[in-house]
Structure formats: C-alpha cells, structure tokens
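Consider the following assembly input.
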Amino acid sequence: MTQSETHLLDTNLESYMFDLGKKARAASRALRLADAKTKSLALSQMAKEVRTVSNDILNANALDMKVAHSKGLSGAMLDRLELNSDRIEGIAVGLEAIAALPDPVGSVDETWTQPNGLTFSKVRVPIGVIGMIYESRPNVTADAGALCLKSGNACILRGGSESSNSNHAIHRALTAGLEIAGLPSDAIQLITTIDRAAVGHLLTGLNNDVDLIIPRGGKSLIKRVQSDARIPVLAHLEGLCHTYVHAAAEETMALKIILNAKMRRTGVCGSTETVLIDRAIAEVFTPKLADALNAAGCEMRGDTDCRDLSTHIIPATDTDYLTEHLAAIVNMRIVDDINMALAHIDTYGSGHTDCILTEDNDIATRFLRDIDSAICMHNTSTQFADGGEFGFGAEIGISTGRLHARGPVGAQHLTTYKYTVQSSGQIRP
Amino acid sequence: MTQSETHLLDTNLESYMFDLGKKARAASRALRLADAKTKSLALSQMAKEVRTVSNDILNANALDMKVAHSKGLSGAMLDRLELNSDRIEGIAVGLEAIAALPDPVGSVDETWTQPNGLTFSKVRVPIGVIGMIYESRPNVTADAGALCLKSGNACILRGGSESSNSNHAIHRALTAGLEIAGLPSDAIQLITTIDRAAVGHLLTGLNNDVDLIIPRGGKSLIKRVQSDARIPVLAHLEGLCHTYVHAAAEETMALKIILNAKMRRTGVCGSTETVLIDRAIAEVFTPKLADALNAAGCEMRGDTDCRDLSTHIIPATDTDYLTEHLAAIVNMRIVDDINMALAHIDTYGSGHTDCILTEDNDIATRFLRDIDSAICMHNTSTQFADGGEFGFGAEIGISTGRLHARGPVGAQHLTTYKYTVQSSGQIRP
C-alpha cells in the first residue's frame, strides 16, 4: 500500500461512507446559496494551488506510475495515468476556464404570467450531491470537482485505485481553494479507502444524501454502475457514430469530412465507426474514399458490395457494425437509400452522434428529424461531438441516456430547476 | 375473477411482459415520427369513442364496484373508483383538452451559432417508452395514455387491480382512437394479467424497452417502485407544504390565503400542512387565524407558544410536522424569523411547495431564492401547485424528484431533447 491508501473494516466502511454522505449534504446547502463570485474565486485559487504544489503532484504521480509499472499496466493505461508539468498546467488552465464560465445557477429559463396575474419563473438550481466514479486519468479529479462546484453541487469523488496518490495530491489543491474562498472543504470529497466495497455503498447506501451518480470510464464500469445503483445515473456509454454519404453529397467535402471524422483522433467517442454510402454514388465514391483512408493508415471492413469496389476493404462481420473500434478501423456498407441508412443506424447505433453528408436540404432535414441520437449532424465531422465545440466550456462527459441530460454535459446540465410563483394575494377559486 | 382478469404461469408472465416491451418499443418508433395533427386526431377520436361506449364503461365499472364493496374497501377508495356519466364526460373532455394542447415534440429550446459557423439547435423529442403504475382512479388510464401519446411516447399502463374492468373498457376506447388515426394500437398497452409479479417485471426486466417509470399513488407504492426499479423513476412522493407568515405580512390577505391554502381542498398535495408565524406578529395574528380556521372546521396542532395564544390549538408532536395530513388538520408553529422558518422547512418539508406571505420584497426574494422546493411562492395559496394553473394543460403528477422534471409534469416534461448541428462542410481542427 502506498501513502494515501487505507483499508477499513466493513462496519467502519459503512459508517465512513454514511459520514461522507452527510457531510456532502451539509456542504451542498452552503454551495446552493454560494454566489458566482465566491465559486469563481475558489476555482481560480484551486488553479493557483495546483501550480504551487505541482512538485507534490508530480511526486505522488511518480508513486502511482511505479506501482502501475510493477503491475504491468498497458501502455495506453500508463499514458492516461501519467502527469507531467504540461499536463499539470493543463489542469490549472482547465480550472481557470471553468472559473470564467457564466454561472448556471439562478439563470431563468422562462417567465410567464397567467391570466389570473400569477407570474411563474423557471429558475436553474443545483441538483444537490453528485457521486462521480471514474478510472485512471487523474485530471478528472479536478475537472469533475470543478464542474460540480461551478454548478453549486457538492460531490463525492471516487477515482481509480491506480491513480490514488495523484488524485489525493490534486484533491488537496482543490480543498485549499475552497477554504481560501470560505466554502466548506466537504464540498469536494475524495473517497480515501481503496476498499472496492466503497463503490457499492456509494451506489446503494447513500440514496438520501446523493442525488446523482456519474460514472466515467470503460463499458464494464458503466454497466456495473447502471445495474447496481439505487440512485439516478447519468451515463456515457459509447459512441458508435455513423457518417452517411447520401447520393447528393458533394464529393470533395465528403472525402475531407470522413477523413476528419474517422482519423483526426481515433480514440474519442465522437469518431466515426461506420460509413454508409448510397448505392447511386458507390461505384465512383467508394474507391476514392478507400484510397484516401488507406493512405491515411485506416483499416476498412465492409460488405461484399463495398469489397467489389476496392481491394483495400476486408470483410466486415455483424459484430464489426456493433463495435466502437476507437482505433484506425472503419466499417463500411453500401445502402440503397436514406431509409436503409436510417434503419442501419437504428439497429447498430448507440444514439450518440450520427451525420449525413448531402447537398439536398430536404433529405438533410428528414435525417436530422428522424435520427434518434443525442447529436444529429449535417455536412460536418462527428468529431465535433464535444462540449467545448458546443460552447459549453468544459464537459463532464457525453450522456447517452435519454433523461435529464443528453449529449455533452457541461456545468449548466448539472443543474435542475425550480419554479417561483409571484402573486399579489390571489387565492385559488 | 371478473371478465378481464387473467392469471399466467411464471414463465408465461416473463414472456408476456417481454413481448409488451418489444411491442411498445416498436410503437414508439412510429410515434416519434407521428405529426401533431395525427396525434390530435387520435386523441379527439378517443374522446368520441369514450362517449360512444360510455355504457360499456359504466357496466365495467359496476363490476369493479361490486367486487370493491364485497372486499369492504373504504369510502374514499370507493369514491376514487366510481365512475358516473359526469365523470365519463370529464374523461372525454380531458382527452379533448390534451388534443388541443400545443405539440411539445419538435419545438426548439434554443439555437445558436459558434464562431466556426456551426449552427446548433436543441430540439424536443419523445423519451421513448414510459411505464405508468397507478392505483384506483380509472380516469388515470385515459389521462396517462393521452399525455404519453401527446408527447410522442409509447406507454405500458398498469392500473390497480380493483379498477381492472373499468381500465379495460377505457383502454379499448383509447386503442380505437389510435386505430382511426392510423397509429399503432400498441402505442398504449394495458397490462392485462392481475399477477402482482407483472409489476416486478416492469420495474426490473424491461430496461432495454422501457425508458422511464412513473408511479402515481400512495407512499408505499412509490417507495416500492423507487427501491425496486432498474429503470429511471419520475416520482411524486408527497406534498408537505408550508405557508410562512412573515412579520410584514398583510393581515387580511394572509388570513384569506391560509384559509384557501388549507381548506379549499384538503386532500390535494398542494394543500398547506404547516403554518409558520413570525413571533413579532404572533400575538395579534395567531388568535385571528385560529378563530378563522376553527370556524372553517379545521383542527390545529401547535407548539406551546401557539397554544398560549389560542385555546383552539391542541399540542403538536414532531411527527405532526412530518405528516402530510391531507385532511382538515393544520400544524402551527411560532418562529423567530425567516432563518428559523427556512430551517424548519428544510428539516420537515418534502420539497414540494412552500410559500411566504409578506409585503417586504427583499425578504420575499430571499425566501424564493433560499427555499429548495420544486415550487416556491410569494403571497398566494399553495393550492396553485397544479399543472393546469401553471398553464401546462393536463398534468401526469407533480415530481418531487430533482432530476429531469421537477414540479408539475405536463406533456412537455415527458420529452427529452437532442441536438442538431448544421454545417457547410467544416471539419474539426
């Protein structure tokens, strides 16, 4: 065990978690009423503190990296875990960016007056207490804590055990910022026991004191949280994104967009996994696309119709069309028309982001209306599926659920609303 | 067993429920794309059909009433269960009112363009499939089915077994309306087995095909649904509403409002259960209020300070302050100031509806900001806590949860959103 890890007896674990919940609820009362200036001050002080203690954070991260190496973690996991001075500066800059965002609390969605003179307003307020469960990236400790604070929510953070020391060091900088601004340090709590049962308690035992669970990580983590939680879950499952090249697509634009949608970054959830091509243009378009993707180092898996048009394309299985590759691999399929494209996306998609490429605005309008995904695009790259690109500032993830928040989740989506009703003495007849 | 009740073997029950889910999901795809006119046509045809078959509905209800009498159900339950021609006309009028509401699907919450030229719109879309579990009132079959249809959602309805025959008769009128409009009759399905295990399947076994569960009924039903469901729940728990008489309240207005807030209808969730009175005005105000409430037939339970001011007031226990009486009983308490009032509401309230009576606008603003309830009111009756009064048309209930929808839930709140992104070929740098 390294410095910050502790083991607790089962009964102690239960009371430890119960106590975290109570403290978070108490802190959420103070946060609910905290003004925008105080929250921004806390966030900019956190950034300052991250820079001040960057050596402590690097040392803590070195401990985590040593354990990770000894456990034989994969290169990708080591990369996610590793911090360096650039990444620490990135954390500080991220905190400052969140400090600078408009405060979502207190903003009025709408105001209206009924014929009887009662005036109603729908006002944004914090949700309360958010439990955040995430895996190896230590920067999520800062991002999640900051977005919860910005939106007036207290949070309980549970990072991956492999990043335990790094998370602690970053968390200390966050609580220092809270204290300087006069906000309760319990507003952002980090679960300090490495007992795996702590997550179970968070998911099932704290339903009076935690209002929402946000898991961020691999599919198995999300599935476990969704099946175990007794508290509402805002889940980001997977991005099985499609780009559909309609018969009336502009060829040069389509090639440029697909290259970007697939290859700009292959590991992000907004990257295109499947390209659907209208039969009417397939003979001309498919070989050009295949040559361009091949030159860019992308493997292509397609149906027989595709493979007849380019030798670069290897066979696709049904499983491929259901797989979020997150790699330089793309599925391809020739479709008869928009109906077949819509049916394919309905069957194989994950409701994340899907795009049509066409110059026919009626067809585009139909696609945008009929696709049942969080993000429906026309003539652009699915890699724009990102809260920053939407103008939300930072994002805590992209929700593939249908309730409360869908698509990119920024600070504004971590709020709920209440109604105020103003009257001059009316009574109900 | 009466005509429409069936029992199924366990394995058959599972496949029966699974089948309901699949059919609902398929119907939801058609409903998602149904236009406003078609849905309104279905709703007005349902109203017509309810009137046409009103004798069948009355006969079915007579069967239910006979069983209910033989089981010795309470007078209040019998009243909730009973239909007569006025109530059936009320159901038809309700359906027509929902037909006439604006269609919430496709409405655009906001549109904005980012500096790179991408145009984003946040568009209202149906949630998908809603499971609705309710108790004895047969009219809920029509209200719930109609509100789900209006918002483009398929629904699976599970009414109380005591209203089984009435629900079936009403349900037949609803599916007739769907068919006339060319919509799938599976858009509104009623669970026809009386096996109690069906609810368990609905709550836990259909999470791929049901997106949201809405329970409507007593506290024990809601608690069971919340603890068992593996699907998001939109719950209406209870309305423990407060009216706080601030020192600067206008006396005549305050008396009139409290009488209305408590006594207009005592059985609704928006009725005031506790009146808090500022100490500064208690000596004058309390006896006047006690006399007025006493004259109106309301029992009063209060703390020692209250009881010193009126002999009408009997002692209140801590449990009283936690009880939604739903009867001509009100709790009273003298408080030192707004801070003590806020603390009382925070401790004893249910986050439903709370009101301040004052002529001091600064104090009112503070109360409206600081109270963490779905509905926060100034100088009016808590009995205005009703979707109709908000202008939402019909309501399916009042949500006391914090996520997705809070307060009165109308057709518009049974939608979620998606984003459309329109571009002229931009790629992400």
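The mean pLDDT of chain A is 94. Ask yourself how this observation constrains the way the partners meet.
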